[in-house]
Write the structure tokens for this entry.
Amino acid sequence: MEFELTEEQKMLRETIYQFSKNEIYPNSKNVEYDTKGEFIWDNWKKMAKMGLLGFPFPQEYGGQGASVMDTVIAKEAFAMGGADAGTCLSWGAHTILCGVPIWQLGTKEQKEKYLTKIATGEWIGGFALTEPGAGSDAASIRTRAEKKGDRWILNGSKMFITNGPIGDVFVVIAVTDKNKKAFGISAFIVEKNFKGFGVARELDKLGNRTSPTAELYFEDCEVPEENLLGPLDLGFVEVAKLILEWERSCLLAPAVGAMQLGLKRAVDYAKERVQFGRPIIQFQAIKHKLADMYVAIEACRQLIYRVAWMKDQGMSAYLEASIAKYFVSEMVVKMAYEEVQILGGYGYIKEYLVERGYRDARLSTIGGGTSEVQKSIIARAVLGLSGREIT
Ligand SMILES: Cc1cc2nc3c(=O)[nH]c(=O)nc-3n(C[C@H](O)[C@H](O)[C@H](O)COP(=O)(O)OP(=O)(O)OC[C@H]3O[C@@H](n4cnc5c(N)ncnc54)[C@H](O)[C@@H]3O)c2cc1C
């Protein structure tokens, strides 16, 4: 068992950290983007130039060929340097939720046509599974895809879709055989200009406001037959297997970086803030909060690194990913709460950025599978019902 990063990984972390601090943070800290709910195009273009948008994809498709572990390290460092959570979320939806299924399940033609554009940032990607009536119970989706000649005709709607208002291409999940439940659901690659597809409405929200979210509609949307992604009827199962593990490692990694930044901010503030004649960092109540935060960061990082490591070994990390998702997302919310508490009234004021982190953190226990759902998955394993032996 090896816990130390290689010299290359340390260098990667430092490079991305400095890039984020110097190039990304100046925009990310601008409260105007958050207040207006605006996507930070300038940051996105810089990320594309830096090669981050296709980080794990093969070089022949415009990517960097990075391992899952290196992708996690890069994402953690990116948030640690000060990138806002909304930008990290949009990056995750683009690269992990849209790009990874196309990379892993796509034909050569699909990869050449779509993955290259995603990797270079020429196109923005998204992933559309959730519907107004189907969230945690994803297999109950109602968007239908029917084959007519050489096209698939999609009808239905999708809810809470990250990058919906700005996306050029989406991996869309739709029912192809309603009698087969989860084994009758397929995946499709849908371009924004396909007839019958569009944004029903942009959604205003609590946090992650620099990441645009939308409800999407499909009204006799015509999708060429060659845009079926993965096996017919099994696309959902295949995409879910892929995405859940990637989502619960790579997409969570920025949360660990954000926690480190939060701890640093809290320490700096507590050293400066004087009450009762001494800096508040000298009070045991504050020191204990800082200690709890540090322990949480260490534990969260190990959980996420373990999932990344398992994925790089080609192992299934379904259970470990759920454990990481549950623990890390709960800790992110708790840490953001404590950070506000340490800053007192100033933590409540926008210019200190801490209240924004508090709003942003709240999504983590909901998106990509709620904490309750993760606990159900973990409980099934504990009860010996998931085919995985607990040792
Ligand atoms: C900002 C944002 C971005 C998102 N981005 C995307 C995206 O890009 N693509 C996409 O497809 N989706 C996206 N989502 C959707 C997200 O994945 C869902 O919100 C999430 O899966 C939960 O579904 P739901 O909101 O319908 O809640 P529900 O499933 O209705 O859950 C409501 C409550 O009931 C609980 N609950 C439900 N079932 C059970 C159960 N069996 N046992 C115990 N408790 C249960 C839940 O834990 C929760 O507390 C996004 C959501 C948000 C808010």
Remarks:
- The mean pLDDT is 96.
- The radius of gyration is 21 Å.
